Amino acid sequence: MFQHPVSGLRVGDILVALDGLAVDGADELIRLLDASYIDRPAEVTILREGALLRRSVRPRERTR
After folding, report:
1. Which residues pair with 14 in a beta bridge?
2. pLDDT class for 43, splitting at 50, 70, 90?
3. CB of 17 within 8 A of CB of 23?
4. Separation CA 25–CA 15 (nearest Å)
5. Does residue 42 have a pLDDT over 80?
6. Burial 12-33 (b: 16+ CB within 10 A, else e)
7. Which DSSP string do the residues of 4-63 spell out, in sequence order?
C-alpha cells in the first residue's frame, strides 16, 4: 500500500478535518486550502480503517 514518505497519509485515508475545521468533501477542502496554508504546517484528521488519526502535513503549491 502506498504511504506518503513524509506525511504518512495512505491511499484510502479519508480526510475529515483540516486544523480542526470539518471537511465535508473535496470542494470544502479546496475552499479551505487557500494561500495561507502553502508551506506551513497544518494538522489533518483522517479516518483510516475505522480509527480517527491526526497527522501533520505541509501543503505545497502544485507545480505543472
Report:
1. 47
2. very high
3. yes
4. 8
5. yes
6. ebebebbeeeebeeeeeeeebe
7. -TTT--BTT-EEEEETTEE--SHHHHHHH--GGGTTS-EEEEEEETTEEEEEEE---PPP
C-alpha cell at 39: 508551506
* Grid cell digits, residue 11: 491511499
The amino acid occupying position 20 is G
- The answer to whether the CB of 55 falls within 8 A of the CB of 46 is yes
The structure's pTM equals 0.80
Range 18-37 average pLDDT: 91
Say if residues 5 and 16 touch (Cβ distance below 8 Å).
no
